[in-house]
Specification:
The complex is a heterodimer of chains A (413) and B (155).
Chain A lengths: L31 H9 L3 E4 L6 E2 L16 E3 L3 E10 L5 H4 L4 E8 L4 E6 L8 E8 L5 E7 L10 H4 L9 E4 L5 H12 L4 E6 L9 H6 L3 E5 L5 H11 L5 E4 L16 H27 L10 E7 L10 H21 L5 E7 L17 H14 L3 E4 H13 L1 H9 L1
Parallel strand pairs in A: 6-8, 9-10, 9-12, 10-11, 12-13, 13-14, 14-15
Antiparallel strand pairs in A: 1-2, 1-3, 4-5, 4-7, 5-6, 7-8
Chain B lengths: L1 E9 L13 H12 L8 E3 L5 H10 L8 H6 L16 H5 L6 H14 L12 E11 L2 E11 L3
Parallel strand pairs in B: 2-3
Antiparallel strand pairs in B: 1-4, 3-4
Classes of the chains: A alpha/beta (413), B alpha+beta (155).
Chain lengths: 413, 155
């Protein structure tokens, strides 16, 4: 059984912060099918289109029939741990600091043998479930978990290397004035975050939900205005070294397309809050988070972007908004590359219309702030990179994968 | 030096879930028949020793002991050059390092040096017959290729 994690002690300010190291992350182009599945928390392997053999490791052709048609498909993740070993000595800089490290060979019910990292409760001869995870270098790795699940299994240290679990971590919710920000504060408090910093611009100005927000356990209100570079820098100077997970809840949602909008005032605000706000946060908090990627149990681990799914394809009724969201999506891809050396993940959470005031005229299905917050916490626990919350987001995602042009026309109505 | 027998095999026992044997196990009877002698006639053995366990797998698969008995075999023999079972008499790769594709020749060169009487280190006394085996082409979870040669000192 996994030993439950203890709350980390207060850090000795004189102690050196360890430099984050990366496990060797180079994989082939064929292997990036594993990256794509791991990013979304799916378990997918190559399956031969001719003879249905399930392949691992990734290959360019089927070893059974030599067919080059070996696309990735979601496959059954269950199997048996045939053999295990504990690595006690390594010349690899990353693993040297994390020894002993258990690995093993798993026979998947679906066919192939896989060498995988092992959860502490995975035992030789016993059933396991496999998951694809992204390691600190962003590379996909196979991880074997006990089946059925065990107590405190989320606290396993080898697993925690691959996830961004909020437990005992310190979170910054950048805007608590919104329903999403408030739901997020509650969800992270419930998930065992050590401190939930919640940013407020003009904190003296009352707002709906203010008293409930202040009453949430371990919430600490801090001054933060993402449209004000000085305010963002000041907050980073104050608390930047203590932020392990940053969730940008700053939103600016207005209906309206491009042609029929008068002037640029609204568009400027959208860009200022969303795109430039993201850049301010990334520049102020990014470097210190990246430097703290291996800082113990409460290392810096995740930067969360909440994105309209229409960042992927414009939805004209909210066309200008979608364009600003697309800018944020593009920036997030650069941020991923820049934060990766620290092992800090950028989690993009895509969703359709929310059950909030600015989508009042849009019919359901809509995502409630609470459902969105739960999805963010779950995605961090899984160590994911992309998550699609709700029917609309999943539908857009699926249609985009099949035919982007068709989706463009369909969204135009 | 005379070449008495050679075997070579790729992708043997592909269905074994964990590799505990190599292609030698499939060809060993033919190997000894071709050589016209048996394991007891061998004066020194040079295995491909990327790991001790791989060397012990070769003890078993080449017929020096039965499958699963290598640990007992190692305990009851001395593997030094003047011992009861001279093995990797140059020190092997575990001493010198794994020299990539050249690694396979380490054992071959050492066996020939012993047989013609010009070893760089200590000699195996009265060495007449040597067996050299090779292993490699590690593909994810197993070695795909195996080979062995029996060599005899020219009369």
């Amino acid at each position: 059984m996994t030993k439950p994690l203890s709350p980390p002690k207060r850090k000795d300010p004189l102690r050196r912060t360890r430099t984050p190291l990366s496990p060797a992350g180079v994989r082939s182009r064929a292997a990036h099918g594993l990256t794509a599945a791991a990013a979304e928390g799916r378990f997918a392997l190559q399956v031969c289109s001719e003879c249905a053999t399930v392949l691992y490791p990734p290959r360019d052709a089927c070893p059974a029939c030599l067919s080059p048609r070996v696309p990735y498909r979601d496959v059954d993740d269950r199997g048996v741990l045939l053999a295990e070993t504990t690595v006690r000595v390594s010349t690899d800089s990353y693993f040297r600091e994390r020894l002993p490290w258990r690995i093993g060979t798993i026979k998947l019910d679906a066919g192939p043998l896989l060498v995988a990292h092992l959860h502490g409760d995975a035992r030789e001869g016993a059933r396991v479930r496999l998951a694809l995870k992204l390691d600190k270098s962003g590379a996909p790795v196979v991880f074997a978990m006990p089946d059925p699940p065990t107590e405190n299994m989320q606290d396993d240290l080898q697993l925690r290397e691959l996830t961004c679990d909020p437990k005992f971590r310190r979170v910054l919710i950048t805007d608590g004035r919104t329903a999403v920000g408030q739901a997020m504060a509650k969800a992270f408090s419930d998930a065992g975050a050590a401190i939930v910093f919640v940013g407020l611009a003009d904190p003296w100005k009352p707002f709906p939900g203010m008293n409930e927000l202040r009453a949430v356990e371990r919430v600490e209100i801090v001054p933060l205005d993402v449209t004000d570079t000085e305010s963002v820098s000041e907050q980073a100077q104050q608390n930047g070294g203590r932020i392990d997970i940053l969730v940008n809840t700053a939103e600016h949602t207005r209906p309206g397309g491009i042609v029929d909008r008068q002037g640029l005032t609204t568009a400027r605000s959208e860009i200022d809050v969303r795109y430039l706000g993201l850049l301010r946060l990334a520049q102020a908090f990014g470097p210190v988070m990246r430097a703290r990627g291996a800082d113990g149990v409460n290392s810096a681990t995740g930067f969360v972007n909440l994105l309209s799914v229409y960042a992927l394809m414009n939805w004209p009724p909210y066309g200008a908004h979608a364009a600003a969201e697309a800018a944020c999506l593009s920036a997030s891809q650069a941020m991923r590359a820049e934060l990766r050396p620290g092992g800090v993940k950028v989690l993009n959470v895509f969703f359709g219309p929310l059950e909030t005031e600015w989508f009042q005229a849009v019919p359901p299905p809509k995502v409630t702030p609470q459902a969105l917050a739960r999805a963010v916490v779950d995605a961090l626990r899984g160590g994911l990179e992309d998550v699609f919350v709700g029917d609309v987001a999943q539908d857009v995602r699926a249609r985009l994968a099949v035919d982007p042009k068709a989706l463009e026309r369909e969204l135009a109505g | 030096v005379r070449l008495l027998a050679t075997i070579e095999r790729h992708n043997a026992f592909a269905e074994d879930p964990i590799q505990v044997r190599g292609g030698w196990a499939q060809d060993i009877e033919e190997f000894w028949a071709m050589a016209g002698l048996g394991p007891d006639d061998v004066d020194l053995l040079e295995t491909y020793d990327d790991y001790p366990v791989i060397a012990m797998m070769q003890f078993e698969d080449l017929g020096f002991c039965r499958k699963g008995e290598a640990p007992e075999f190692v305990r009851s023999h001395s593997l030094t050059n003047d011992g009861s079972f001279p093995h990797n008499t140059s020190g092997g790769q575990l001493s010198v390092g794994q020299a990539g594709a050249a690694g396979g020749y380490l054992g071959l060169v050492e066996a020939m040096r012993q047989l013609i009487g010009v070893p760089l280190g200590s000699a195996v006394a009265d060495a007449k017959v040597a067996v050299v085996s090779g292993f490699g082409m590690i593909n994810f979870d197993r070695g795909l290729a195996s080979g062995a040669a029996a060599l005899a000192k020219a009369a």
